[in-house]
Backbone:
């Protein structure tokens, strides 16, 4: 981190410093809605793209150059962690991930381990270095990992699912094994995010995409303690954004976790979020990705209304979840442009 | 409705009258976790079961006789409404519904209509009559329909989905068409639920299973007005239970709708629910179906804790969503038994 970052809006917003306008980036911004990304997909498989630092870096930088977002997020996948832990992970385009040997019995634990992440996930830290080279300190680079609960969902269910019933049933039947698995994922994730910070990411986001499948008491048992542990272990190294999708009930606890920012899904209104998260944490949110299909003037009207509601300070503009693959590129650009000319 | 109902706990809870213990039933209680239901499935297709009044009645009564719930809910499906409106609906066991010609363009509206429900859905009212015969006034019979928003999801997307992105994109692009479709579904649903009431159901539940996919402002545009209109049109004929899954932010508005009860998913804690719904509406909720996989003493402990938290009066014990197909029958029975011996 030799050169200062030219556009440091995101980092200032995360530190709670004054900004002239809120920064904007989009979850899954380096993804399928970009024609150049789709072109790469025809020649390189998913893990080839993740594991080839030059390719990952090229994809990482695409939305900065083509859409003009205020931050890059590393192109990778949350499932590189189960992969490094010893699980087989297959990616099938259009059908999502498959983990053919899920973890369910005591015997299944013999196949997984807390890995040496510097060794097993060197391709990620190499991709970070390559991305930094391409970014030339123009904007910050965001690292990320899946939250333990969300990774457990895939590792136990064995594939994506609407409500991960198998994983949730398993936690009810085998809470001891669930905590054993969450412990291993947490230890791996702390080492992994520290390695990302050492390699030069400017902040990290933790994705608990399936937090909303847990009721409040289960969230406090199976998700929250591990999220807080990871946050505590990282926050003095690098700013932390926690995104616990669907866990609207946990905002006060997550705000007290030491995270620099909380990501919000589009079910949470600004007044509720600020009232429950308090004034001392940055909020990142929460444009409904489906609204990017509205006519351009409507996108601009809604974006301005969202910033008016959340306020310019301690706020990061984002979507409430990943951008949808069929989003028109000019609509994504209109969303970003509208933030960049925002005047309160 | 000649004979008084012997076990009228559910109806008393809906009217806000004093009960000695809360009533209990389970969403999807007449379903795949019951061996006798699975046996019927091998010999009769889905719509054959729905459309043969004797079969539907036999399935409706199964959980009353085998599990001992305090109410029967008619065996049917929310997709009989799109079917009656002129759409093709295929049910594929294990893969969910398929509507091969979804509604997306103005031209698609030529294929659908507000039907004469007394004619098109006579098999449902016949199934209600047959169920009443078998129930012999032992417990109340619950009728139901899908909410307009939830039916729109299937009619536009064409199949089940994790987040119904196509349907949500369509609403952003074509709000005028969306309201035209919601209008037609609403008119059909009001006539349909009135026909159910005339045929003798003792109360009705409206399932807005996908309400949680809408942010609060979209919920107020695409879901809530139609839910309230249906409730207002029905409430003087028959008690109404509104279940808008995931719409935790709308509890105050839904409580003011005139519905007799609000169904809650397992993300909502009792204190939040009562504070936001107020004291004048019955709450129905919200045991996590995954918790039925816990050991029996744990199921009993959690069930008692839930009733302690919600209170005995103005409360109906249920799951937070449908019972899972692999639930052990004795676990479902333990849940029900625990409510029946509850003493505060």
Residues:
């Amino acid at each position: 981190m030799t050169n200062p970052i030219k556009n440091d809006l995101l980092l200032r917003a995360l530190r709670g410093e004054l900004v002239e306008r809120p920064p904007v980036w989009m979850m899954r911004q380096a993804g399928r809605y970009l024609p150049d990304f789709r072109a790469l997909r025809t020649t390189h498989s998913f893990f080839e793209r993740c594991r080839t630092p030059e390719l990952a870096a090229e994809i990482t930088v695409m939305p900065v150059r083509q859409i003009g977002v205020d931050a890059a997020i590393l192109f990778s996948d949350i499932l590189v962690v189960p992969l490094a832990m010893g699980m087989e992970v297959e990616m099938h385009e259009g059908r999502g991930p498959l983990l053919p040997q899920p973890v369910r019995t005591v015997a299944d634990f013999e196949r997984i381990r807390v890995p040496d992440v510097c060794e097993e996930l060197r391709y990620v830290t190499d991709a970070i270095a390559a991305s930094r080279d391409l970014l030339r300190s123009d904007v910050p680079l965001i690292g990320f990992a899946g939250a333990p609960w969300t990774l457990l969902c895939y590792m136990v269910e064995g594939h994506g699912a609407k409500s991960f019933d198998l994983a949730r049933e398993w936690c009810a039947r085998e809470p001891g094994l669930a905590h054993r698995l969450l412990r291993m994922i947490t230890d791996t994730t702390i080492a992994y995010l520290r390695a990302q910070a050492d390699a030069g990411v400017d902040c990290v986001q933790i994705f608990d995409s399936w937090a909303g499948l847990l009721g409040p008491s289960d969230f406090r048992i199976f998700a929250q303690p591990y999220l807080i542990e990871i946050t505590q272990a990282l926050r003095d190294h690098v700013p932390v954004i926690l995104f616990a999708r669907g866990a609207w009930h946990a905002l006060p606890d997550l705000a007290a976790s030491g995270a620099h920012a909380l990501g919000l899904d589009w079910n949470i209104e600004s007044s509720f979020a600020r009232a429950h998260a308090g004034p001392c944490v940055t909020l990142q949110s929460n444009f409904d990705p489906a609204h990017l299909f509205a006519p351009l003037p409507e996108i601009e009207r809604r974006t301005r209304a969202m910033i008016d509601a959340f306020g310019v300070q301690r706020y990061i503009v984002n979507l409430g979840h990943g951008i949808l693959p069929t989003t028109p590129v000019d609509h994504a650009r209109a969303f970003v442009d509208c933030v960049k000319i925002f005047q309160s």
